[in-house]
Amino acid sequence: MATDRQNTGWVDGCRAIAYQCCGACEHIWYFRREFCPNCGASDPRMCTASGNGRVYAMSMVYRAPSDELHPHAPYLIVMVDTDEGFRMMAHGDPLLAIGDRVRARFIEFGGRLIPRFGKPET
Amino acid sequence: MSWISGVGLTRYGKHPGRSTLDLMSDAAGLALADAGLERSDVDGLICGYSMTMPHLMLSTLFAEHFGIRPSYAHAIQLGGATGFAMAMAAHLVIESRAARNVLVVAGENRLTGQSRDSAIQTLAQVGHVDYEVPLGATIPAYYGLVASRYMYRYGLDERDLAHLAVLMRSHAQAHPGAQFRTGIDVDAVLSSRPIASPLKLLDCCPVSDGGAAFVISRDPLNEHRVRIRGAAQAHTHQHVSAAPTLSEFGAGISSTGALQAADVQLEDIDYLAIYDSFTITLAILLEEIGLAPRGQSGELACSGYFSRGGKLPLNTHGGLLSYGHCGVGGAMAHLAEAHLQLTGRASERQAGTPRLALLHGDGGVLSSHVSMVLEAG
C-alpha cells in the first residue's frame, strides 16, 4: 500500500510499527486509511508505536502458503495487544506464551521486512 | 414465506475431469427432480463463485449452460457464508414476489481443478494483503490464533477440540457421499500432522470437488417441502486482526436475529446445521449461539449430546470436516442434510423427527455470519 504520504511502518519497509489516531474522537487503529473508521473524521494522525505489548494469541505455522515460504516453516504467528491499545499480527520467537510481555524487532521474511516479537532483554 | 421444495447434493471428494459447470449442473438437476420441476419452471437463479472458474457473471453463464432463462439472477460472494446467504437471498426474492421458483446452485472442482498450493494461496487472501498475508499466515493459522485464545481462556487442551472432529467423522460414516468415512478417535486427531497449532490435519476440513443446489419456491410444491421461517446476518469485521475480540464474533447477533425473524426460541430448535471449517469454528459458533456452555462444546460432543441419537443432532452428514468442503457448496450440504432430516428422508441417518432446524454459516475468519431457521412443512 504505497502512498505518497509520509509514512513510517513496516508495510512500507521501515523498521517501525505505525498506527493511526483520530483527532476528533481519539479512536486508534492499525490498518491505515484516510479517515477514522469510528467517526469518519478525515486526516487521522500517523503515530509510531513503542513496539511493546503482550501476546494475545499465537499459532505455529507448519504448512506455509507458498513454495517461497516453505523453507521458513515452522514459524510462529502471534497477535499482540500493543501498549498503545491496538491489536496486530506479527511473527514471534518460539516458546512465547499467551500473556507474555514482548517487544518488537524487525526481520527479513520472504523478501519483506516484518515485525517479530520476543521477550524484552532484561 | 418461502419453501425449500427440493435439494440436490453430489458426493464430495474427487470428481476428476468434472468442471465447475458440470458439478453445478449435476446438483441443479438433482434439486429440480427433487422439487418435481422442469428447467422451464425456474424464473430465479442465485449462484456463488468458483475459485477454479472465476467469472464476472457466473449466474448468467450457468443459466445459458444449463438451459434456463430466469427473469432474476445474480451471484453472491461471502466466503463460507455464501451458501446460506444465497438461500436467504432466495427467501427474500420469493417474499418480494420477484420470482416464483428460485434455483440456488453451487459447484466446484476445488480439489482436482487446481494445485494444493494454489488453493492455500488463494484462500490466504482472506487475510489483509498488507498487514497479514506478508507474514505467511494461512487460513488455518488465522483459526489457529482463535483456537489458541479459546484454549487459553477456558483452560482447555487439544483433546477438547478433537472430540468435534471425531463426532463429524462418526456421522460421515453413515453417508455414502462423504469424502472421509474411515472412523477416527481422539488419538488419531491428536497424532495427525500439525498444520497451524493447535490445529492438526484432522481439525481441518478437506478440500473437495462437489456440487449442491436447492429450489426455493413461493408455493409448497410437494409433500417434502421445508419452510424458511426466518434468516438474519451479521458482519462485524473482515480480518482477524480487526476482530473486536477472539471470543465474541457476529454469530450471536446473527442467530438471535434469525430466531426473532422466525419467532421461535433457541430451546425450540431440535436439529443443528453449523459451519465447521475447523473444529474451533464449530466450538466458537456452538458456544456463541448459546447451544453449548462456553468451553464445553467438545465435552458435550463426547457425551453424545450432538450425535444422531442425542438431544441436539448436529451435521448428521459429517459436516465440512468429513463430508467435505467444495467452497460455496460446503455449507449447502448442511442445508441439504437438514432438509432430509426435517422431511424424514435421511434413511439410516434419520435423527428422530426434528421439526425446527437452526443453520449457521460463517465466512472469512468468523467475519460474515448467516443464520436461518427451517421448519418441517
Give an overview in words.
- The complex is a heterodimer of chains A (122) and B (377).
- Chain A is mainly beta and 122 residues long.
- Chain A has two domains: 48 residues, no CATH class; 67 residues.
- In chain A, the strands form two sheets. In chain A, strands 4-5-6-8-7 form a five-stranded mixed beta barrel. In chain A, strands 2-1-3 form a three-stranded antiparallel β-sheet, with no helix packed on it.
- Chain B has one domain: Peroxisomal Thiolase, Chain A, domain 1 (3-Layer(aba) Sandwich).
- Chain B is 35% helix and 19% strand.
- In chain B, strands 3-2-4-7-1-8-11-10-9 form a nine-stranded mixed β-sheet, sandwiched between helices. In chain B, strands 5-6 form a two-stranded antiparallel sheet.
- In chain B, a hairpin with a 4-residue loop joins strand 10 and strand 11.
- The longest helix of chain B has 16 residues.
- Chains A and B meet through strand 4, strand 5 and strand 6 of A and helix 4, helix 5 and strand 5 of B.
Cα(first) to Cα(last) distance of chain B is 12 Å
Order of helices and strands of chain A: EEEEEEEE
**Could you list the spans of chain A in which at least 5 consecutive residues all have pLDDT below 50?**
none
- Broad shape of chain B: globular
The number of helices of chain B is 12
Instruction: Tell me the major beta sheet of chain A.
Output: 5 strands, mixed, barrel
Overall number of domains of chain A = 2
Globally, the shape of chain A reads globular
Structural class of chain B: alpha/beta
**Taking strands numbered 1, 2, ... along the chain, how are they ordered across the largest sheet of chain A?**
4-5-6-8-7
CATH superfamily of chain B: Thiolase/Chalcone synthase
Work out the helix count of chain A.
0
Task: Record the strand order, biggest sheet of chain B.
Answer: 3-2-4-7-1-8-11-10-9
Q: What is the percent of helical residues of chain A?
A: under 10%
The number of E-state strands of chain A comes to 8
**Uncertain segments of chain B of ≥5 residues (pLDDT<50)?**
none
Give the overall average pLDDT of chain B. 96
Oligomerization state: heterodimer
- CATH-assigned fold name of chain B: Peroxisomal Thiolase, Chain A, domain 1
